[in-house]
């Protein structure tokens, strides 16, 4: 239902991306979900096509020069995440759960944070407890807090917690808090 409700908005975003930058409208990237299974995450492209050609996989930063002008708006409003509803329909993600991490970044974090892969005990989510409580981490301490919140969600997940996270997500989207 959410995919149908957002289809006109998604069409407008697709036209905007096509009109303002070269390259594909959708961005596909390998991510991890439950039990370490790899899937192709879908997003609206918000960065230049060659964004990681020289650097390889790196964390997004505030004011990241790789982000297109329209991409800044899409990220702030989280509209770039809407194609992940297709991942949800395909059963690769759920609406709520730990955010899916890139395999190479997850391996790097697992080498620095004991138990990091324990977050893979649940299906990856479009939004999650760590996103609405903490936002986007930018250092190891932030990723440790994120892991703690992900594990707390896994232990306590249920309808009431999911509803609370969904309501908080609406507030995060409206405020643009934590976007990069």
Sequence of strands across the biggest β-sheet: 1-2
Q: What are the low-pLDDT stretches, counting only 5+ consecutive residues below 50?
A: none
Order of helix and strand elements from N to C terminus: HEEHHEHEHHH
Helicity level:
40-55%
Mean pLDDT: 89
What coarse outline follows from CA principal-axis ratios? globular
Rg computed from alpha carbons, rounded to a whole number of angstroms: 16 Å
Q: Tell me about the biggest sheet?
A: 2 strands, antiparallel
What structural category characterises the helix and strand content?
mainly alpha
Give the beta-strand count.
4
What are the SSEs and their pairings?
Elements (H helix, E strand, L loop, with lengths): L1 H19 L5 E7 L5 E7 L24 H9 L6 H6 L4 E3 L6 H10 L12 E3 L1 H5 L6 H17 L2 H17 L5
Parallel strand pairs: 3-4
Antiparallel strand pairs: 1-2
Give a structural overview.
The chain is mainly alpha-helical. The protein has one domain. The protein is 46% helix and 11% strand. It has seven helices and four strands, in the order H-E-E-H-H-E-H-E-H-H-H. Strands 1-2 form a two-stranded antiparallel sheet. A two-stranded parallel sheet has the order 3-4. Strand 1 and strand 2 form a beta hairpin. It is globular, with a radius of gyration of 16 Å. The chain starts with a helix and ends in a 5-residue tail after the last helix. The mean pLDDT is 89.
List descriptors.
180 residues; mainly alpha; two-stranded antiparallel ribbon; 46% helix; 11% strand
Overview in brief:
This protein is mostly helical. It has helices at 2-20, 69-77, 84-89, 103-112, 129-133, 140-156, 159-175, and strands at residues 26-32, 38-44, 94-96, 125-127.
